[in-house]
Amino acid sequence: MSNAPKINPDQLWQDLMALACLGATAQGGCDRLSLTEADAAARNLFRLWCEDAGFTVRVDAMGNMFARLEGADPSLPPVLMGSHLDTQSPGGKFDGPLGVLAALEAARAIGRTGTRTRRAIEIVNWTNEEGARFAPGLMGSGVFAGAVTLEAAHAAQDRAGDSFGAALKRIRYLGEEPVGGREIDSYVELHVEQGPELERTGTTIAAVSHSNYLVYITVECLGANGHTQATHFATQRNALLGSAKALVEIERIATTLESRAAVSQLDVWPNNRVNVPHRTTFSVMMVEPQKEKMLALRGQILAALDSIGTEMGLTFTIRADATREPVIFPEEMVTLIEDVSKDLGHSVMRLSANTGHDALSMGPICPTALIFVPSRDGISHSDYEYTSPDHCAAGAEVLMHAVLRRANRT
Amino acid sequence: MSNAPKINPDQLWQDLMALACLGATAQGGCDRLSLTEADAAARNLFRLWCEDAGFTVRVDAMGNMFARLEGADPSLPPVLMGSHLDTQSPGGKFDGPLGVLAALEAARAIGRTGTRTRRAIEIVNWTNEEGARFAPGLMGSGVFAGAVTLEAAHAAQDRAGDSFGAALKRIRYLGEEPVGGREIDSYVELHVEQGPELERTGTTIAAVSHSNYLVYITVECLGANGHTQATHFATQRNALLGSAKALVEIERIATTLESRAAVSQLDVWPNNRVNVPHRTTFSVMMVEPQKEKMLALRGQILAALDSIGTEMGLTFTIRADATREPVIFPEEMVTLIEDVSKDLGHSVMRLSANTGHDALSMGPICPTALIFVPSRDGISHSDYEYTSPDHCAAGAEVLMHAVLRRANRT
């Protein structure tokens, strides 16, 4: 095994820090929303690094980028590994880039051995995982897996009315390759946990067994406008005040049920000092492992909206209502991550995913594994996101060996 | 008195309805924010009507418009009457335009008699009374009265970053006349009540005796961003949830004190579904007749912000803090409105003002009167604002005769 591939931890860390320069925030994070100039710069640099390592990059009509390490038998479907280079605004240095750059370093390490794997291996950078500029997230992988149409994705608009399709073309990443529609042997993704469990338990690696219910509801609240100063609160049909009561009630319900619900987005019309707000929209997100509890959480929240509406003369209407059903990863893939971790001497545990990942898009179309490494203080979607160089390297090692086993299996 | 001037109620109503076509909303209101194309159109039409009636229009460097009916003694300071043509978004047909168009019809009626008043009379359209696009409101009259500098007003920006000065120039209403700095005999303004008292008591006219304390506080709330799904509400330093709690608490405090406080403006960062909001700003408005109660209201609200901040790990910081002290109109001016109303056979009562008016700018620099006529259901700053033709005409008659007595007095 003197020829066993070895990732270079320093190279991986150096690449992560270099990429973090693109869209860097003053607080040490990244603001690299999908299809912005910063995202374009990150893509260009990633392409250069792939080409420097001898991998040709192909781009599909969603801007998804694939760098292929050819296999001994090119007729076999490839093993994919990757994640995304876009971030939240602000986001950190690790959520997304770690999975792409660990895949790049793994591919370079395999390439350095001078041997071929049985199946080809492809590094992938999925477009718009975050959904922070163009909703919803998991867009590039969603179209690849056939869960979202190319037309719907290209028509998605940001708040300024710019379309995904136009922005993709403008940054020159509207590729010619068709999106998906080809056989994939398996998909392995490395990501930061974005939660506190690995750190709390002192574990290095998580093998993700499944995702939880993710429910997104967009609510419109209608009241009546008027002059803020001329009337008492009590006589106003104030959509903002009603929404504030709803937010407080949603917290109370989630806490009582020991479940998770959050409102992080709220828009107000006309949003000036002297007009009673006659309209708001807000999005409620719920995460819950158990179906019955998810239904209870959802039901109690909707009942609370009805009750506040009746009390205050407001109308709450559900404008969008999406449930992402749990994705259960195959036992063989979960075991693969556990086995590889143990063989490499890393502690490993099973976890479920509370957050969206491109692996959730891929799960339905091929055997998929999702690997987590620790997030300091459980923080992500933040300037202060941090995963240590050792944990990044450990994750990259597990990723590489899991992919090698998939690519070489007979 | 066969030569006594008489306003034409049909003409006044026709002018109100014609002006309401400019920036008309589908719901029957108006969206004519200051210095927009709709405001420019309203100004152009108002100027045309003034010139048709033989009055020359002058424009000052704030875009304030003055149409003068010369007096027998041009050396005496003029009596001003008017209000504003801009509206909220959405606003109605009456808040503002009634005072300007009643003044125009009053001036036409006086002109039709072929006699001259002792002092000149000027109709005025004040720029940006509403402050809905460029904050704060009462801007044109505020600069005229020396309460705001011309430089500060021109530098005010809307949400798109457009400056007041640039917008004023673009609509061609950056006039050459200096702003204010001249002696004014007195100012009389007709406005809709924007409250329910006249309707509730079946009274036609209010002589406004004074304004109440108006307190505006802008609050910034800072928390910490993060991933909404990855953490429980309970562990988030969620600035939006903290602000929602603050809004609910502000309502409770105002209701308990039988006073008025409202939040109508709230902005959230980064305002997307998967990021815990780390920052909000919101504006608290308070209206209260009594100083002690205003101080109690203010004190309890600030204490509530501190308490919520401590409980949730948030920082609430006051970013702007303005108190508009009560303006007390001279007894002679209040009595003038009462006397004229009674002489014309209209029921009249005294009221205080809970809302901002250009008359509050003018009060400190000349004897000022403010006349209210009923608002249906007390509604204003709304598409559904309505004042009947009879009430509009009654208000115009009182305005005209009050101005005549001021202009002709020896």
TrEMBL record, chains A, B:
Binds 2 Zn(2+) ions per subunit. Zn(2+) 2 binds at D95, E130, H381. CDD domains: M20_bAS. Coiled coil: none annotated. Gene3D superfamilies: 3.30.70.360, Zn peptidases. InterPro entries: Amidase_Cbmase, Bact_exopeptidase_dim_dom, Peptidase_M20. Keywords: Hydrolase, Metal-binding, Zinc. Belongs to the peptidase M20 family. This is M20 family metallo-hydrolase. It comes from Acidisoma cellulosilyticum. The lineage of its organism: Bacteria, Pseudomonadati, Pseudomonadota, Alphaproteobacteria, Acetobacterales.
